[in-house]
Amino acid sequence: MKLQHYLGGLEGLGRINFEKRVFVQPWEKRIFGIHVAMMALSQHLEAAKVTPTQFKSIWTWANLRKLAEGMNPFDYFKYRYYEKWLGGISSFFIESGYISTAELETKTEVFLEKSDTPLPHNTEPAIDNQVIEYLRVGDSPKCKVEDLKPKFSVGDAVTIKNPLPTEHCKLPGYLRNKQGVIETVYEGAYNYPLQTGDGVGDPMPIYSIKFDSHEIWGNLTEPKTWIYADIYEAYIEDPS
């Protein structure tokens, strides 16, 4: 079984949308802004804990991906990029108790009946400053972990695992069971904000691995072409 986020290298997926605009509809800018504000005010950040806000939850890219990819696969392929964001964020606000399903449906009906209804407007400089600071410094997943040594070294020939599908997976589907060579061992350890259920979450090394394209797609690719992928250690077969 493959989930909708394992699509790399598959054929026959139908018409491809080559839309180049970042935002197709004006409301997409607003949902992007809401998402950025939620990340900047996420309570796992020390600065956000002292910022006056009603948002008392943890929200990261991982939360957004988990909720969007939890959609019915037919809906996932039907909706555009920011429509998936809207669905994921709306579900989060309902599940977290910030708004009820009934309240959301009522608000939706208002805007459907009269599309020129003014949008809510509220300016809080403290929140604006925190969002700007977050955009400036970000939220690095790199961690300082003592005595955490990489299991693999540059030049090692390795095999990629084939973990069971989970709510979200950081391993491209087309690399499962494939063989490659360690090209780079990145310094330090990196975590993922949520436990994926397949071994990724806690801090661990990440490697850049070089794959012969023929190992992945056979003779469909040109000779002497290579694929490079950054892969968490949990997805690599243990040499022992």
From TrEMBL:
List the keywords (alphabetical).
Answer: Lyase
Report whether Lyase shows up as a keyword of the record. Answer: yes
Q: What is this enzyme's EC? A: 4.2.1.84
Q: What class of enzyme is it?
A: lyase
Q: Which reaction does it catalyse?
A: an aliphatic primary amide = an aliphatic nitrile + H2O
Which residue ranges does the record assign to the Nitrile hydratase beta subunit domain? 142-237
The residues covered by the Nitrile hydratase beta subunit-like N-terminal domain are 1-122
GO MF, one annotated term: nitrile hydratase activity
Q: Does the keyword Ion transport apply?
A: no
Name of this chain's protein: nitrile hydratase
Q: Which organism is it from?
A: Chroogloeocystis siderophila 5.2 s.c.1
